[in-house]
From TrEMBL:
Keyword Protease among UniProt keywords: no
Superkingdom of this protein's organism: Eukaryota
Name the UniProt record assigns to this protein: CNTN3 protein
Entry keyword set: Cell adhesion, Cell membrane, Disulfide bond, Glycoprotein, Lipoprotein, Membrane, Signal
PROSITE patterns: FN3
């Protein structure tokens, strides 16, 4: 607060964060300047409130077969606004309308792994992560797209043919694997001699 007149012995400090411990000192001043600060007050914690800040950097990907890995930067303790803080992880296959939700109860946890045999390799999912505490649910992060785990390609290239170019060179050509059959980001092909 601004400087308080010398006949006032209380002050209200505003715009503090919920569920944070604060301690205070008071300094007396006159027209010459400020004196020594008082000893600190006892620590006082503000009341709890619903969380207002969702986690940042929501992303994911990678993992093992039949997994969807979702990651985020945990919310710092001073922004959790109360006890019982955790995350609500929501995801759905892209193009669908129903969210699948789960709760992560540890405030320090930076990821969730959903395992299910029905997950197709390298499939896009819409993902968002929300927050909650004992006072209620807070906001969700913005929706982002995360791909499920990649797997090895499920089919071989087709239409393989070879043409002699000279006494020491042969050109080999093939038809590319369709994107859906590559089960991930296709990095390249390996040509081997028989």
């Amino acid at each position: 607060p601004d400087v308080i007149d010398g006949k006032t012995f209380t002050s209200t400090v505003v715009d503090l964060n919920p569920w944070v411990e604060y301690e205070f000192r008071v300094v007396a001043s006159n027209k010459i300047g400020g004196g020594e600060p008082s000893l600190p007050s006892e620590k006082v914690r503000t009341e709890e409130a619903v969380p207002e800040i969702p986690p940042s950097e929501v992303s994911g990907g990678g993992g093992s077969r039949s997994e969807l890995v979702i990651t985020w930067d945990p919310v710092p303790e001073e922004l959790q606004n109360g006890e019982g803080f955790g995350y609500v992880v929501a995801f759905r296959p892209s193009g669908t309308t129903t969210w699948i939700q789960t709760v992560v109860t540890s405030p320090d946890t930076p990821k969730y792994v959903f395992r299910n045999e029905s997950i197709l390799p390298f499939s896009p999912y819409e993902v968002k992560v929300g927050v909650y505490n004992n006072k209620g649910e807070g906001p969700f992060s913005a929706v982002t797209t995360v791909f499920s785990a990649e797997e090895e390609p499920s089919t071989a290239p087709s239409g393989v043919s070879a043409t002699s170019l000279s006494s020491s060179a042969i050109e080999v050509s093939w038809t590319a694997i369709p994107w859906k059959m590559s089960n991930g980001r296709l990095l390249g092909y390996e040509v081997s001699l028989l």
